[in-house]
Design brief:
By secondary structure, the protein is of the alpha/beta class. It has a single domain, classed as Rossmann fold. Helices cover about 40% and strands about 20% of the residues. The strands form 2 sheets. Strands 6-5-4-7-8-11-10 form a 7-stranded mixed sheet, sandwiched between helices. Strand 1 and strand 2 form a beta hairpin. Helix 2 packs across helix 3 and helix 7 packs across helix 9. The radius of gyration is 20 Å and the shape is globular.
Length: about 325
């Protein structure tokens, strides 16, 4: 076991198990993490296997949704940082959709993406380093902004990473971090515990713990709120529950709260990802088209409820902007 990444305590309690991987909770500061020293090897194994060349089971609607998400993120980015141009670095650039969006808005962009998804970013003509961040030589005090969307939770040493990125920013430069908030209202609506946890997620933040980590790295918080990066990402019914249920029952419990109250078994179990992939493969092109039609018809209601949930700060991810 390694010390807690927030408070350096070694006092842990098991929270959940994914196969043989134990996810623990610090008894001093409540930060949830994979506390075993070997967590980095789990991460490396994940990156070596993701981005495979197997069949793409996503519907056309879902593929376009990822591109729309880049637009939402670019809007948030420009609104909260005040930037309209300059040098921007994205850590975990994936297929390069966000960088491509910013490039179209006049920014100079660079990315880092260790998985094979980065090949698609390179094919777009983007400058993307296809390696782990620790192995990339980045210029000091060079960037106006650095972004990490759904990435900080993958690092073995998030504080060390934030300090490294601090040195790469210009004076007054901005750091933008988006990560799942396991304590958020939105997270309470996951139906099963294994949807809260992933073996490639080493750390599980709350808004408080993320802000504490940013401050420890030397940053000043200028904005922090909850969001779902794409208004079309969640179905109308789920968003309606997020808006209504907390009003009716403010103390309702989600999977994490039930785990901590010892109402859910935390024994080892295997996730259902392989079963879901097999079902998706059997549905074929006809099933994809039918899902697209249903989602397009529901889209206006999804957008409406998403805007209400965002206004009430009930997204599942915390979006923090900090300045050097």
């Amino acid at each position: 076991m390694r010390p807690c990444r927030i408070c350096a305590s070694l006092d842990y309690t098991p929270v959940y198990y994914i196969d043989e991987v134990e996810i623990s909770r610090c008894n001093r500061c409540d930060f949830i993490q994979i506390a075993s020293v070997g967590s980095l090897s789990i991460l490396n194994a994940h990156y070596s296997s993701c981005g495979h060349d197997g069949p793409d089971l996503r519907s056309n609607f879902d593929k376009l949704k990822i591109i729309r998400a880049a637009g939402f993120r670019a809007d948030y980015f420009m609104r909260h940082t005040g930037l309209t141009g300059g040098e921007v670095l994205e850590i975990g650039a994936s297929e390069g959709h966000f960088l491509d969006e910013l490039r179209g808005r006049g920014f100079n962009v660079t990315g880092v993406e260790p998985s094979r998804h980065g090949l698609k970013a390179v094919e777009k003509g983007l400058h993307v380093h296809r390696d782990m961040l620790e192995n990339v030589a980045l210029k000091d005090a060079h960037y106006d902004a650095i972004c990490l969307f759904q990435v900080i939770e993958h690092f073995e040493d998030p504080l060390g990473v934030l300090r490294l990125l601090y040195s790469k920013l210009k004076a007054g430069g901005c750091l933008v971090v988006e990560t799942p908030d396991i304590y958020s209202v939105g997270s309470k609506f996951e139906k099963t515990p294994w949807k809260l946890f992933n073996v490639e997620h080493i750390t599980y933040f709350s808004q408080k713990s993320l802000d504490e980590l940013l401050k420890a790295a030397g940053f000043k918080i200028i904005a922090s709120r909850h969001c779902d990066y794409d208004g079309l990402r969640l179905p109308f019914a789920k968003m309606l529950k997020r808006v209504v249920v907390p009003l009716i029952n403010p103390g309702f419990k989600g999977p994490l709260q039930k785990i901590l109250a010892k109402e859910i078994d935390i024994r080892y179990r295997t996730s259902d990802h392989s079963r879901i992939s097999a079902v998706g493969a059997r549905q074929g092109a006809g099933g994809k088209r039918l899902r697209d039609i249903k989602k397009m018809l529901a889209a206006p209601f999804d957008i409406l409820m998403s805007n209400i949930a965002y206004a009430l700060d009930r997204g599942s991810s915390v979006y923090s902007v900090a300045r050097k």
